[in-house]
Every structure is written in C-alpha cells, then in structure tokens.
Design brief:
The chain is α/β, with parallel strands linked by helices.
Length: 203
C-alpha cells in the first residue's frame, strides 16, 4: 500500500497559465537531467510509475504537478543542464520555473544531485534562486549506492561544507531509491514541510 494512498498525477503545464490555482502547499523536485528526479518521486510516494522515467536527458520539458491530497502537491520541474536543448526551449523552461517561484503555495524544494558528480553549476544556480525566494532546499545525493561507503560519506561532507558557504536554508543527505537509502528521512522531511506549512496557514 502506498505511503500516500491518494497521490495522483494532476497536470502537465507548458505555460504558467496552465498551473493549478495558487493555493495550498507545493513542494518542488528539481535537478539536472538524469539526476534521478522521477525515480526519487516514485520512491518517496511508494509508487512504481507515478512519475515517468527516461534514459534520454532532457526528455521532461513540462512542469508536472502531482496531488498528494487536496491542497498538497509535488511539482516535478524540467531537468536542467541538457546541453543539446535548443535555446528557445531552455528559455521556455526558465520562464516556467520563474513563474513557479512567484507562487505563494511553493514552500520548499528537494534538489536531486547525482552523488557521483556532486553539486554542479546548474545546482548552484538553483540554490541561489531558492535563496532569493527564501525557500528551504534539501539536497538528495542520489545513486549513493553506486559509491563505496567512504566515498559517499566524503561526498556528503563536501556537499554540506559547500552548502554552508552558500546563501539560503539548505541541508543534504545520501539517498538511493533502489536501496531505500535515506528514504525514510526524505519522507519525514517532506511530511514536516507539508504539515508545518499547513499548520502555519491555519493558525
């Protein structure tokens, strides 16, 4: 049985006008193309194919909204860093993400980073963007099972050190959807963000 039994795909938006009404709580999932965003979403929601995965970088060019339950949504952002994407498409993605940042419903972001590569330029840009919006970011160092334990711990320490030197509210953990590494911690933070923000809104 799913941890979130009512989660369902809501809409794919190609333009801000197609976004759901700006209300409730939204948590975004961001990351480079092929960092493992869709896999992380499926693991966190305990669904096998809620978010479509692809071996082709840059395949997702829309913002996908998933409803966890009424008024609570996950938002799957287009992967960034795909060098072969034509400039008009990249500009369109940027406009979509900028529009998402203006929504009062957006409360935080999970940033999916391939643990074998660490934070890259696009990831740092995303972190600065979130800091300007005063939104917390939690980094999931995905595919951590593909590193030896010492290397994974070294990557986690390095990532934490780099995050401390950057603006905004950020944290990091090791994560592997295939091995369920860090899955409970990621779900716990997701629930904390959703529930705390809901309590704030109702106060």
């Amino acid at each position: 049985m799913s941890i979130y039994p009512h989660v369902q795909f809501l809409i794919s938006a190609a333009a801000p006008s197609q976004f759901p009404p700006d209300g409730g709580i939204e948590i975004a999932i961001a990351g480079r193309s092929n960092a493992g965003k869709s896999t992380a979403i499926n693991a966190m929601m305990a669904r096998k194919a809620l978010a479509r995965t692809s071996k082709t970088p840059g395949r997702t060019r829309l913002i996908n909204f998933f409803e966890i339950d009424p008024g609570r949504r996950l938002v799957d952002l287009p992967g960034y860093g795909y060098a072969e994407g034509p400039p008009p498409d990249r500009d369109a993605w940027a406009r979509l993400i900028d529009a998402l940042g203006q929504r009062s419903a957006l409360c935080g972001l999970f940033l999916i980073v391939d643990a074998r590569r660490g934070l890259m330029e696009g990831d740092e840009k995303l972190l600065h963007w979130a800091a300007e919006l005063d939104k917390p970011v939690h980094v999931l160092l995905s595919k951590a099972d593909q590193l030896k334990r010492a290397a994974a711990q070294a990557m986690l320490r390095d990532t934490g050190s780099r995050l401390q030197r950057m603006p905004g509210q950020s944290s990091a953990q090791l994560f592997s959807a295939h091995e369920n590494m860090g899955l409970d911690d990621a779900r716990r933070l997701l629930d904390e963000w959703l529930l705390n923000k809901r309590d704030d809104a109702e106060a």
